């Protein structure tokens, strides 16, 4: 028994000698300072109170300001020549704007000539207010043009009536069988209305039917303004240039 106790004591001493002592540890705190070299800010969306005629994209970018004036003029001429009929709007006292369909007899630069019956109510309108508006529209392409101007009226002594009169125009007057009201240039009912433009606005499609639908769908998905054509305006200085360009 004594031998066993001696052996156990010896083993215990060996274990104590071989057990490693705990190594003290220290914690070191390092403080790092970061300096911003640049600041990035996300663009702030427009507030509802900021929306006006200068910031609303559907209005601020409404008109084409990039295309040269001579190109805008020639495009207008092409549009007007492709649409032979327009709405002519006069102002009637006590009623307001009154429109009727009229065939264009001739385009002379930015100005337009029409043959009309002197007995028409439009002449009593023009006696009181010479302001007139012409509206052209092509429903297939959505192209349109609006011309605001002043009307000048001349009777059948105007030599241009003889130049412009044709069987198509005469058909709207009829031959009354009295040898006077024949529907020809000498008919006293035959009257010329000349509209001198003061302001022109028009819209020209730049997309196909498929492209049009794609633009509308994309605008609804993204919230952007659809772009399916160009909206242009010709003011007094451009209209004077158009009279020279024809």
From TrEMBL:
InterPro entries reported in the protein's UniProt record: Split_barrel_FMN-bd, Stress-Dev_Protein, YdaG_split_barrel_FMN-bd
Stretches of the chain forming a coiled coil according to its record: none
Pfam families, A to Z: Pyrid_ox_like
Region annotated Disordered, chain positions: 43-67
Stretches assigned to the General stress protein FMN-binding split barrel domain: 74-224
Gene3D superfamilies reported for this sequence: Electron Transport, Fmn-binding Protein, Chain A
Domain of life per record: Eukaryota
PANTHER family per UniProt: PROTEIN BLI-3
Name of protein: Protein bli-3
Species this chain originates from: Elsinoe australis
């Amino acid at each position: 028994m004594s031998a066993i106790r001696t052996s156990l004591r010896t083993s215990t001493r060996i274990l104590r000698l071989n057990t490693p002592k705990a190594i003290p540890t220290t914690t070191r705190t390092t403080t790092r300072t970061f300096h911003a070299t640049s600041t990035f800010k996300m663009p702030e969306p427009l507030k509802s109170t900021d929306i006006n005629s200068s910031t609303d994209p559907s209005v601020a970018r409404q008109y084409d300001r990039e295309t040269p004036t001579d190109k805008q003029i020639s495009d207008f001429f092409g549009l007007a020549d492709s649409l032979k009929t327009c709405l002519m709007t006069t102002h009637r006292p006590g009623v307001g704007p009154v429109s009727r369909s009229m065939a264009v007899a001739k385009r002379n630069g930015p100005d337009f000539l029409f043959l009309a019956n002197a007995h028409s109510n439009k002449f009593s309108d023009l006696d009181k207010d010479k302001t007139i508006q012409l509206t052209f529209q092509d429903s297939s392409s959505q192209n349109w043009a609006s011309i605001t101007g002043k009307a000048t009226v001349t009777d059948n002594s105007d030599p241009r009536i003889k130049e412009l009169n044709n069987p198509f125009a005469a058909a709207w007057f009829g031959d009354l069988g009295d040898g006077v009201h024949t529907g020809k240039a000498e008919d006293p009912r035959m009257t010329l209305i000349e509209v001198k433009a003061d302001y022109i606005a028009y819209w020209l499609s730049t997309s196909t039917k498929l492209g049009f639908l794609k633009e509308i769908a994309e605008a609804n998905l993204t919230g952007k303004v659809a772009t399916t054509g160009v909206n242009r305006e010709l003011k007094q200085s451009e209209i004077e240039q158009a009279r020279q360009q024809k």
